[in-house]
Design a protein that fits this description.
The chain has 263 residues and is mainly α. It has helices spanning 3-24, 27-45, 48-56, 62-94, 97-101, 110-136, 146-173, 177-184, 186-189, 208-212, 216-228, 235-260. Helix 4 packs antiparallel against helix 6 (110-136) and helix 4 (62-94) packs across helix 11 (216-228).
């Protein structure tokens, strides 16, 4: 077999291993999935009328706020799944299984590839489930055709892959699962300081730069434009630059740490 065939075979094996772990231990995934669903229900049914009136400057219309809120919640769902990725990688590194893998004739990078692909698949499935809840409570896409939906799906997948590589790196540098969970926590908190819940222009001046110069805000605005027909502007290429940059950074950080770590 060629080296490429071996890499694909071993990566597929590691992917199946990670998916089996997720199926056998679903509590972490379910707990992280419940967070965006609870936020969605909270902001729609408790704060929806007030937030809609404040953003629109007119009467309360909960349906308008649902449309505004859902793109941010979908990207926040991806952020929530990253904690599980970091914890899973940290467990592999500290429980001795990686040391055994290194004594076997398997492609070295397949371990990380299995984690990344498995985590991206879980993130996409989580987004689909949260999106189904959003549709059930009234979210409707406006003027989005097949191309817009495909672009939106591609954006979510690219975003998930970029941050998954960062989460893998966080798991590799963490001494235990608790530290990995704490290290990945900012990936959940960062979308809270973005345009997910309110427009950036409505934020205080000292918060606005944090919301503007981070990856979640342009990604949210791009997703809103694709699904709701709002103005995208420069946000699409800023999002792509963020995603590609984080992917490259996370990949080299993770592989360099994995290759030199003796555990």
């Amino acid at each position: 077999m060629s080296s490429l065939s071996l890499a694909v075979r071993d990566s597929s094996t590691m992917l199946r291993r990670n998916l089996l772990h997720a199926r056998r231990y679903p509590s972490l995934t379910l707990n992280l999935l419940l967070t965006p669903i609870m936020l969605l229900l909270l902001f729609v049914y408790v704060f929806g009328d007030v937030m809609s009136a404040g953003i629109g400057g007119g009467g309360a219309d909960r349906s308008e706020y649902i449309a505004y809120l859902v793109p941010g919640i979908l990207l926040m769902t991806i952020g929530g799944t990253l904690v599980g990725t970091a914890v899973s990688v940290s467990n592999d590194m500290t429980e001795g299984i990686i040391a055994r893998f290194r004594t076997m004739a398997i492609h070295r990078g397949s371990v990380l590839v299995g984690h990344v692909v498995g985590s991206v698949l879980q993130a996409v499935i989580s987004v689909v489930l949260v999106g189904a809840v959003a549709v059930a409570i009234g979210f409707r896409s406006k003027d989005a055709g097949v191309l817009e939906w495909l672009a939106a799906f591609g954006l979510l997948a690219l975003f998930a892959m970029a941050f998954t590589w960062i989460a893998v790196g966080m798991g590799l540098v963490s001494p235990n699962a608790e530290a990995a969970s704490n290290n990945a926590l900012p990936l959940i908190l960062l979308p809270l300081v973005s345009s997910a819940f309110v427009p950036v222009d409505a934020m205080p001046g000292w918060v606005r730069p944090v919301a503007e110069y981070q990856p979640f805000t342009p990604a949210i605005e791009t997703l809103r434009g694709l699904l709701l027909g709002t103005e995208i502007g420069d946000n699409w290429w800023i999002t792509i630059v963020w995603c590609l940059g984080l992917t490259v950074l996370g990949y080299f950080w993770s592989t360099s740490k994995f290759n030199r770590d003796p555990k």
